[in-house]
Design brief:
The complex is a heterodimer of chains A (181) and B (467).
Chain A (H helix, E strand, L loop, with lengths): L13 H27 L5 H4 L4 E4 L8 E6 L2 E7 L2 H9 L20 E5 L22 E4 L6 E3 L4 E3 L11 E5 L2 E4 L1
Antiparallel strand pairs in A: 1-9, 2-3, 3-4, 5-6, 6-7, 8-9
Chain B lengths: L8 H9 L2 H10 L2 E3 L8 H20 L9 H10 L4 H28 L8 H23 L4 H12 L8 H9 L6 H32 L15 E3 H26 L29 H9 L3 H21 L11 H22 L5 E3 L4 E3 L1 H12 L3 H10 L3 E4 L2 E5 H26 L10 H5 L5 H5 L7
Antiparallel strand pairs in B: 1-2, 3-4, 3-6, 5-6
The chains are: A alpha+beta (181), B mainly alpha (467).
Chain lengths: 181, 467
């Protein structure tokens, strides 16, 4: 480099290299520091995050019936399972499952199955809540978009979805009142 | 190139200080173009015109549109019913997207057949692929704006593609949405980006044309121009030819706008978005169908998304996958066949993307039969109970005989077509570059046209003060 001929230190331009490095990295960190607020402003805002939880009265739901409630803009499935459906869900050999989870970790009370009604493939709402809708081969839910099938515990059994239907956090306020979120 | 002398003194005054007129004269008037371009070379300028049509109508529509979940659907209906000529502008914009894609697809396949991606035009080709990617993103965002059922669920499915990314996928999706589902923040940002991206496309188009004018257009013979005897000036020869093609194309465009404005759309998008109910069939717009078929043909979520992305990314590498020194498919007897199979393959993929993956296509009766009906037919034919037929059909690979007809499961057909798509680029083209013996290419463009290279004075002399 040119400076070397100007009688600089033996390792030519050390000082200049250092200054260059410092200046460039300062500019780099500065750019990142400015970029982050911009990117983060696109993340959910406080009013979106502050979305209240939902309370659902379960007393009107008969055995075998299902209701859908909206929570955080998404549907939540509440199904009051029949004895047979519970048995089906409990007897499945876990080794055959794509996302192995025993039924009892997915429910607080075996009768009440509460799930986020969003297919884990690409986010469609699976069918199977209304009696007329298809429930797929495993008696749970069937996603019309790409054909994923869920069982009576909401576990993925067939189709492209990688994971079981998500279980939201919920607490039973009383025997007939559940608070989701 | 000597600078042109302009008669108008104002133009002369400006041009002396900012040589914009000289530049245009050079690039759009005297620009030497191969004299043998066919009508397949009209589609580049057609694409440029479509971009202008979309920007012009889009700007005016944006002045009437409200990007809010509570008002978006109604504001589009207001454009349709109350705004003066709103229906016309929206139908032009809506069908214009499809027209833009038709033109661009023909433009891309033209390039694939005539080897327009080969040296020294690799960067030109890659810039084209960038434009195509930007177009796909822009069209997707535009489709979300009317906030109908297909808008909402299309947006949900497409943004969820990013959730396939390991570890950070969910955070990325939340960032894209600005919430926990597709909602008002999502609509707002998609509107902004839909407004912005066409101008980004415009910028890349400028680069695309810049790269094009470095070496000039490829041509049906795929050989380089050897001198003025092989070229004619762009104006008036190709401006006129492009204008004629544009007229014919606008007749085609007008047919859709005035006689079948909704034929290419989906009726569900006239139902306001409902986050609690997914439509029976989510079908993307026709121009995405081949990629949707590739996505669905792979049963694993992440791999499906990767395959879909790879189907476009592979185009960036095309110039190095096809090593054959001969550009034009005209002189490649074996390549030609595989090329037309690829075109057909993309049509098959489009078809597979349109129908339910579990359904069957029966080639002999030419119908789409849903899985349940197909199983019943199978049960009747084979004399099986419903249960037994269900199991038998379920276990089969996907090709079945039922009710005397032969049926192929849509998802299997899509898988075969996906395999061919990738094989064309990754196996067939590299092997052809080694094993194919191309035909003799002509020595010059003039030779096959005029029977000799000497008729230079004929066409080239006009405004080309080469000397």
């Amino acid at each position: 480099m040119a400076q070397a001929t100007h009688g600089g230190p033996a390792e030519s331009g050390t000082r200049r290299d250092f200054l260059n490095l410092m200046t460039t990295s300062l500019a780099g960190f500065g750019a990142l520091a400015v970029a982050w607020p911009m990117i983060h402003s696109l993340n959910p805002s406080k009013d979106v995050l502050a979305l209240a939880s939902v309370e659902v009265d379960l007393s009107a739901i008969e055995v075998g019936q299902a209701v859908t409630v909206k929570w955080r803009g998404k549907p939540v499935f509440i199904r009051r399972r029949t004895e047979e459906e519970i048995k089906q869900a409990e007897e499945v050999d876990l080794a055959t499952l794509r996302d192995p989870q025993p039924d009892d970790v997915r429910v607080q009370k075996p009768e009440w199955l509460i799930l986020v009604g969003v297919c884990t493939h690409l986010g469609c709402v699976p069918q199977g809540q209304k009696p007329a809708e298809p429930r797929g081969q495993y008696g749970g839910w069937f996603c019309p978009c790409h054909g994923s099938e869920y069982d009576t515990s909401g576990r993925i059994r067939r189709g492209p979805a990688p994971l079981n239907l998500e279980v939201p956090t919920y607490t039973f306020e009383s025997d007939t009142l559940v608070k989701i979120g | 190139m000597a600078a042109p002398v302009f008669k108008n003194p104002v133009i002369r005054w400006i041009d002396h200080r900012l040589p914009i007129f000289s530049y245009l004269h050079h690039e759009a008037y005297e620009y030497p173009t191969p004299k043998n371009l066919s009508y397949w070379w009209n589609f580049g300028s057609l694409a440029g015109v479509m971009l202008m049509v979309m920007i012009a109508t889009g700007l005016i529509l944006a002045m009437q549109y409200t990007p809010h979940v509570d008002h978006a659907f109604n504001s589009v209906e207001r454009i349709m019913r109350d705004v003066n000529y709103g229906w016309l502008l929206r139908y032009i914009h809506m069908n214009g997207a499809s027209m833009f894609f038709i033109v661009v697809y023909i433009h891309i396949f033209r390039g694939l057949y005539y080897g327009s991606y080969k040296a020294p035009r690799e960067l030109l080709w890659q810039l084209g692929v960038v434009i195509y990617l930007l177009m796909m993103a822009t069209a997707f965002m535009g489709y979300v704006l009317p906030w109908g059922q297909m808008s909402f669920w299309g947006a949900t499915v497409i943004t969820n593609l990013f959730s396939a990314i390991p570890w950070v996928g969910d955070s990325i999706v939340t960032l894209l949405w600005g919430g926990f589902s597709v909602d008002n923040p999502t609509l707002n940002r998609l509107f902004v980006l839909h407004f912005l991206l066409p101008f980004v496309i415009l910028a890349v188009v400028v680069l695309h044309i810049g790269a094009l004018h470095r070496f000039g257009s490829n041509n049906p013979l795929g050989i380089d121009t050897k001198g003025p005897q092989d070229t004619i000036p762009f104006h008036p020869y190709y401006t006129v030819k492009d204008m004629f093609g544009l007229g014919v194309f606008f007749i085609f465009f007008a047919f859709w706008v005035f006689w079948a404005p909704n034929a290419l759309g989906h009726p569900d998008n006239y139902i306001p978005a409902n986050p609690l109910s997914t439509p029976e069939h989510i079908v993307p717009e026709w121009y995405y169908l081949p990629f949707y078929a590739i996505l669905r043909s792979i049963p694993d979520k992440l791999m499906g998304v990767i395959a879909m992305g790879a189907s476009i990314v592979i185009l960036f590498f095309l110039p190095w996958l096809d090593r054959s020194p001969v550009r034009s498919g005209t002189f490649r007897p074996v390549f030609k066949w595989f090329f037309w199979i690829l075109v057909f393959d993309c049509v098959i993929l489009m078809f597979c993307g349109k129908y339910a993956p579990e359904a069957y296509w029966t080639p002999f009766t030419f119908e789409i039969v849903d899985a349940a009906t197909f199983t019943e037919r199978y049960a009747a034919l084979a004399g099986l109970s419903h249960e037994a037929a269900l199991n038998a059909v379920g276990e089969m690979w996907g090709v079945n005989f039922a009710s005397g007809t032969f049926g192929i499961k849509i998802v299997r057909l899509g898988q075969l077509a996906t395999i061919y798509y990738f094989a064309y680029f990754l196996i067939i083209l590299p092997l052809l570059s080694i094993f194919e013996t191309p035909k003799q290419v002509p020595l010059s463009i003039s030779k096959p046209v005029l029977g000799g290279g000497r008729a230079a004075a004929h066409a080239a002399a006009k405004p080309m003060e080469k000397a």
